[in-house]
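retry 2 of 3: previous attempt timed out while embedding zinc ion. Reduced batch size to 1 and resubmitted. Inputs unchanged:
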Amino acid sequence: MAANERTFIVFLGPPGSGKGTQARILEKKLGLPQVATGDLFRYNLKNETELGLLAKRYMDAGDLVPDEVTIRMVEERLSREDCAPGAILDGFPRNLHQAVALDEMLASYGGVTVVPLFIVDDDTVVARISGRRVCRNCGAVYHVEFNPPRQDNICDACGSELYQRDDDRPETVKNRLYVYYKQTGPLIGYYFAKGLLEEVDAMQPVDDVTAALEAALAKRGVTV
Ligand code: ADP
Ligand code: ADP
Ligand code: ZN
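retry 2 succeeded.
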């Protein structure tokens, strides 16, 4: 690998397909930070920044936050020191314009390394999202049935309270899926044509998905 090459993994898949769960597992194993645009927006919202307040109405509706602010936020995040070896991008890009912007950002680092595509059906997505619980403090992700915390509603990692995201309500989930198929779906073709796409069966238990992901990454020279 050339000296200026870094590893940029783009997780592609519908909301609730398990991208965040896997990114949190793999960031430790790979030594690459998880860059999750949804988490960054929620962090801004919690701190009532201008960006957070702007993003809120789009997130509440399940629509995409405008490209201009999203792209600027990612550019700033990727310029930080901890991204020196690369990053796991979770939730970005989400449309073609963002994908092209990412290619431009990474042009001098060898571009995107690999794009695992999380394959799950809609029923699984709905079941996963409706039981999702998130830690208010550290953002750790649980599921009331599939991945429960040791103590009801308490984060295993930091002891804080868990909550259900506003946009995980059934009315919003429907629009988020629609937005995924309409706006993010074209990225499957975009990355396939670049020879970067790796399909991963994400309907399996968490550990098996991790193993399948690791196998997909290894095909592209990314090893844990
Ligand atoms: P999920 O993990 O369920 O897919 P995220 O936490 O990634 O959801 O995203 C939550 C919301 O944040 C999205 O519905 C959208 O409003 C906003 N968002 C996240 N990433 C992006 C992005 N790349 N572009 C525009 N909006 C985004
Ligand atoms: P995404 O980041 O793609 O929106 P998450 O990682 O937040 O997805 O996962 C959505 C929900 O599904 C969470 O409640 C999580 O605990 C649960 N989950 C994640 N992976 C699996 C899996 N392989 N099997 C069962 N449940 C899962
Ligand atoms: Zn926590």
